[in-house]
Amino acid sequence: MAHATLSHSSRFSRLLSTSRFLRKPSPLFAGEGFRCCCSAATDDTSPSPRKRVVSGVQPTGSIHLGNYLGAIKNWVTLQDTYENFFIIVDLHATTVPYDTRQLGKATRDTAALYLACGVDISKASVFVQSHVCAHVELKCLLSSSTPIGWLQKMTQFKEKSRKEGGENASVFLLTYPVLMAADILLYQTDFVPVGEDQKQHLEFARSLAQRVNHLYGGRKWKKLGGRGGSLFKIPEPLIPQVGARVMSLTDGLSKMSKSAPSDQSRINLLDSKDLIADKIKRCKTDSFAGLEFDNDERPECNNLLSIYQIVLGKTKEEVMEECKDMSWGSFKPLLADALIEHLNPIQVRYHEIIAETGYLDKILSDGADRAIDIADATVHNLRQAMGFYMRNSAN
Ligand code: ATP
Ligand code: MG
pLDDT at residue 39 above 60? Predict the structure, then answer.
């Protein structure tokens, strides 16, 4: 296989055309609702005419409002401009104890929800992580360059391993960030739209890419018969200015999460109208007069106003003007109605997609085919640069 013929050889990229917008993508998006958190310039090694976006959700449960507002909704905004890979990261779901009877269903549901939320398969490859073996192989190759101390410092590892009872936590929970780095680096990714909680893992992926480029890339790789230059692009996180950290409905200081034990703490995208209304009615509030953003003593108030702002597509000022004198009793029904109305079309589309036999499987299979083309080229390059004896398929 020819090395480093990444997106030029991809059938998918040929379907896409360049746009005027693409010539200066990063500053535009950083100013249009996203924060680009990295100061270092992207290492532009890919010949792709379109910058690449990669992101994913793990099928650990039901997709909630935080996943939607922090990640998926933004993928839909970005997909017109970039070449996109949206992954159902099922291997990550096995880093903590899980129900084998639920994993397959959660994987299908997650894929269906991506589409129902507006991911367009003419603009994005949607696929299941475990269907593309290169993710596991790259994780293995990257592991030898990963200092164990980098992993032990990760906030998510500390929090989730505590929940698993410390030493009972799996090795895979510790090495989760290496797989996440592989998910991103495989595709020579430019941008990774994620919620705030993933910022540290993105920083990890960037550092690991730089380390491997330094250890094995450039002239060392060239001497081994490679192209030389960087093995990996250095990806940049894209974190939305509003919605990057949607908080729990029962505790305004904790992130809304699929794995939180209480279903009352989150709005799942597939919750019924009655359930949404009930969860909002019973969600935690405070006893201050009026409503306001950005008061540290009122995290629940800030969270609920922010959710209201995004689902209605309003500005902060408009929401403030409308709600500043409201009581919780008048605001909560408005918020519940806004959520129900926003989520209803997504729920209708989800049920149509799930009901169509074979539709999702075909999309996931086509998506995996496109991903494999690119992912295999990256793994080939790294094997070569790491000095492995390469298989000669002509014999
Ligand atoms: P788990 O509890 O199993 O870790 P999760 O709810 O954290 O699940 P993930 O699958 O880990 O969801 O994350 C998928 C995407 O959703 C990531 O980009 C993550 O940053 C984003 N995300 C998760 N929770 C929130 C949240 N509360 N607010 C904004 N974005 C979020
Ligand atoms: Mg998570």
Answer: no
